[in-house]
TrEMBL record:
<feature type="domain" description="MEDS">
    <location>
        <begin position="6"/>
        <end position="151"/>
    </location>
</feature>
<dbReference type="Pfam" id="PF13581">
    <property type="entry name" value="HATPase_c_2"/>
</dbReference>
<protein>
    <submittedName>
        <fullName>Sensor histidine kinase</fullName>
    </submittedName>
</protein>
<feature type="domain" description="Histidine kinase/HSP90-like ATPase">
    <location>
        <begin position="200"/>
        <end position="313"/>
    </location>
</feature>
<dbReference type="InterPro" id="IPR036890">
    <property type="entry name" value="HATPase_C_sf"/>
</dbReference>
<dbReference type="Pfam" id="PF14417">
    <property type="entry name" value="MEDS"/>
</dbReference>
<keyword id="KW-0723">Serine/threonine-protein kinase</keyword>
<dbReference type="InterPro" id="IPR050267">
    <property type="entry name" value="Anti-sigma-factor_SerPK"/>
</dbReference>
<keyword id="KW-0808">Transferase</keyword>
<dbReference type="GO" id="GO:0004674">
    <property type="term" value="F:protein serine/threonine kinase activity"/>
</dbReference>
<dbReference type="InterPro" id="IPR025847">
    <property type="entry name" value="MEDS_domain"/>
</dbReference>
<dbReference type="InterPro" id="IPR003594">
    <property type="entry name" value="HATPase_dom"/>
</dbReference>
<keyword id="KW-0418">Kinase</keyword>
<dbReference type="InterPro" id="IPR047718">
    <property type="entry name" value="RsbA-like_anti_sig"/>
</dbReference>
Amino acid sequence: MSESFTHCVLPYDGVDDFLGGALPFLRDGADAGDRVLAVCGVAREVLLREALGPTADSVEFVEPGTWYTHPARTLADCLSDADDVAWRGRRLRVLGEPVVWAARPPLEVLEWQRAEAMVNIAFRGTGAAIMCPYSSSLPAGVVAAGRRTHPETVRGARSMANPLYMDPWAYSAQCDGEPLPPRPADADELEIDRPDLFWLRAYVTEYARRTPLPDEDLRRLLVAVTEVVTNALRHGAPPIVLRMWTEPSGADPALVCEVTDKGSWEPGSGYGLVPPRPSGTATGGRFGLWAVRLLCSIVQIRTGCDGSTVRLRLRLPAVPAAVNGV
């Protein structure tokens, strides 16, 4: 693959700005024989099809709700596609607008923004081309983050270096700059003092059964907790404590599982933010923590001289409110 990886932001105020950047990007890909994807809603798809004419037949249109499902999983799937297309001597080209994820709960939005930054590390060597249109009508914080997570910015058919771009690792550290909210006083607590994980899994299962967590998500949680606790036993320092609680309030109810220990992580450990890569490609991260991010809705990590905390969140299905006392 001779092309270099590119990741650019397309800031736009209206339809003309959007088409001025998106159309050359898509047409160049179709002319080059790239695999071209446009992740957009129905209105944008109609607009692009009309403007592209016959070229639209070379573009795969993808519904945003099926693409932006989970930050780590979407990153992994897209990276796999890029590697597969590159292996076949072609280039993956993606136009992806963050309209859907920008309206999701704040913690999820933060992880999508972090994923935008990590793309710049994970996709090195793939030759892929990714353009992200950011409308000025998006929340101001989302637009500001977009200007910090893309190395290039686009105006029409012209691409230039983005002066506001931040190093991905520095941006990720900024995402973790706020301390975690305090755990509730009534959180369930289990101190772990032995490597036998049978009782750990039994404890997590028993607590999770009190919540509406689906069985498939419980299986994911058991694998994720096992990995995090094993990591603490191997590399952390006692006491190692597991705590669990639920956060039922608001539109994003969750089961929270937290593991703390008195150890600290080595600089450059990566926190499992970058997918492991095959030998000879861009550097990836540890599979274990990357797998944890694939398994859980949100993974929050804080580490320092006072110890380390890994907090896992799995979204709970909303329970319908009782009607007429039923």
